[in-house]
C-alpha cells in the first residue's frame, strides 16, 4: 500500500548556512603588550547579501543582461558588503545628581538665531543632509539654488529665517545651535577609515551609531593595519583644530618592532630624519620593554602623515609589527575601552573640549 503521509519539509536555510560558514572568517587579534597582552577573538557577522539572485547585472549602455555597445565597457563589479555588527557602547556609571542636572541643562541649551549668525550656503545645505559640499557647490554653480527668491552664488551666506530652495523645493535648514557630539572609538586592525570602499571591506563608519541630523567626522586617520584611538565629532571646526598642522596637536603611539634601536638612532629620530615627503621627527621616544627580538617603544609626534611612524622605523630597516595609537591631543584611550567599542563624551566633558579648543558652545570658531 502506498504511503500517503506527507514528507517532512527540509530546512531551506541549510545550504545558505553551509555557504555562510565557509565565508565566515575568524580573526584572532592580540592586544599590544602595553595594554595587557590579552588575546581577543572576533567573528565576522554572517548574513545573506542583498540583491536579486539569478539576474544578470546591468551593463554599461544598455538594459540588464544586454551586451554593451561597440566602444563601451561593462561597468566594474562592486563588491557586496556583508552585514556589519555595530560597535558596543562602553558602559559607565552615572555621575552625581549635580553632574546629571548640569548635563541635562547643557543638552537642552540652544543658541538664539542672533548667536548662530550667518553660515555659508553650501555648508548649511550639507549640514542639513542635502548632499556633500561638492554636490551642493555644483548645484549652486548650475543656478539650481535660490535664497529669498534670488539665484544663489558660491560663497553667499544664509541665516535662520531665509527662504532657501533647491529647484522648486523649499529646504528646512538645520543649524548647529547646540553642543556637538564627540565620540572615542577603539579601532581594530582590518578596518578602514573611509565612508565607502569599492572592495566591500569593513569601515569604521559601519561600526558607529547612526546620526539622524548630522554625520560623524573622523579627526585624523589610522591605516588598515593600525589599531587604537580614533576620535569622531559632529563639529567640522573641532576636527580642523585637531588636525591642522599649525595647531601641532600631539599623537602618541605604542610601537612594537622586530629589532632594537641604538642610542644613536634614537637621537637621530629626535633630531629629525629625511623621508620621501620631507623631514620627520619624534618629539619623544621611550623604550618600554619587550621579549626576544620584539621591542616596544612609545613615540610622540605632532603631525599625521601617511604611514609616518612606520616609515620612520623603516628608515633604519626595522619592521613595525604592531602599531597602536594611545593618545590624540587631550584624548587618551580609556583603559576599559575594548577593541571595537566606543565611548561618547557626556555634555560636561564635551564642553571642556570646546573650551580647550577655544571654540563656541556649538563648535564654531570664535570671532
Automatic annotation (TrEMBL):
Gene3D superfamilies: Alpha-L RNA-binding motif (3.30.70.1560), Pseudouridine synthase I, catalytic domain, N-terminal subdomain (3.30.70.580), RNA-binding S4 domain (3.10.290.10). It holds the Pfam family S4. SUPFAM superfamilies: Alpha-L RNA-binding motif, Pseudouridine synthase. Residues 54-68 have a biased composition (Low complexity). Keywords: Isomerase, RNA-binding. Residues 119-180 form the RNA-binding S4 domain. It is an enzyme of class 5 (isomerase). CDD domains: PseudoU_synth_RluB, S4. Its EC number is 5.4.99.-. It comes from the Bacteria. PANTHER family: PSEUDOURIDINE SYNTHASE FAMILY PROTEIN-RELATED, RIBOSOMAL LARGE SUBUNIT PSEUDOURIDINE SYNTHASE B. Belongs to the pseudouridine synthase RsuA family. This is Pseudouridine synthase. It comes from Chitiniphilus shinanonensis.
